[in-house]
Amino acid sequence: MTGHPRAPRLWLVDLLVVLVAVVWGSSYLATKEIATGEAVVALLALRFLAALPFLAFQAAGKLRGLSRAEVRGGAVLGAVLSVVLLLETYGVVYTSATNAGLIISLTMVFTPLAEAVITRTRPRPAFVAAAGTSVVGVLLLTQGSGLTVPRLGDLLMLLAAVVRTAHVLVMHRLKSVRHTDSGVLTFVQLATAVVVFGIASPLAGHAPWALAAAFGTKQWLLLVHLAVMCTLFAFLVQMWAVRRTSPSHVSLLLGTEPMWAAVIGVAFGGDRPGVAGGVGVVLVLVGIWWGRREAPAATEHAAPPQAEQVLQAG
């Protein structure tokens, strides 16, 4: 009898976590709908500035306890995060939403591989095969229906996956923030990123206030979706779900994000990857799923934690 009331709650947890993966998958198309090369920096400033007050309120009781070393560490991570967000968002502008969501997912296999190199441990052959499958899939994905030079956006997304991998590894190895509350660390990183974007935006094409004034109803709805659903909702659900299941369980469900990015890009964004690209989509999804199952035990902790996963750029 005691087990029956618990089952619906676990189903609800899983459903909400999958919903986070879905909204993240939709974020690439949403960004592509409102972002231009001249407006990327201002858009990022607006999106995360809108989320900061709530994150500050949520972390208020713990912010006072931050040491100077933790603030410095969070600021360093925030600066790296700024680079990741810029690369990802510029990448979305210059490639398809489907390609963006799938290529950035390579972080899931890059991170354990990089951790294995750092710790001088040999990953399982099956994991290496899974990583290779994902990479081959990305190569096919960038070719579309014929042999072509990868688009600028594809290359930017690939570089973003590399830098995001570095961000995850630094986060886990930076002693000053190793025991910092994830909500507080998220706030410090985003606050740093917003400062960077606010300073850089007038130089990059548009000031945030000018971009906000130029937005119509559709653009504001998409911006609210990115700020509320893809940032705040995702943050709250992860914090809530991890307490009721486990980080690894939540991470596994969030790993479906690239699948949703592909589905949404094709169904609503008009993406047509072609035969070669279609095979690439399948290989990337299979490789990511396989890689998550075969990730070396020694590097499982390298999977992005809450503080990293909520900081999605798409």
From TrEMBL:
Membrane topology recorded in Swiss-Prot or TrEMBL: Multi-pass membrane protein
Alphabetical keyword list: Cell membrane, Membrane, Transmembrane, Transmembrane helix
GO cellular component terms attached to this protein's record: plasma membrane
Membrane-spanning parts: 12-30, 36-57, 69-87, 93-114, 126-146, 152-170, 182-200, 220-242, 249-268, 274-291
Cellular compartment(s): Cell membrane
Family: Belongs to the EamA transporter family.
Residue span(s) of domain EamA: 13-142, 152-289
One Pfam family of this chain: EamA
Protein name in the entry: EamA family transporter
Species of provenance: Streptomyces tateyamensis
Highest taxon listed in the record's lineage: Bacteria
InterPro entries for the chain: Diverse_Substrate_Transporter, EamA_dom, EmrE-like
Record carries keyword Membrane: yes
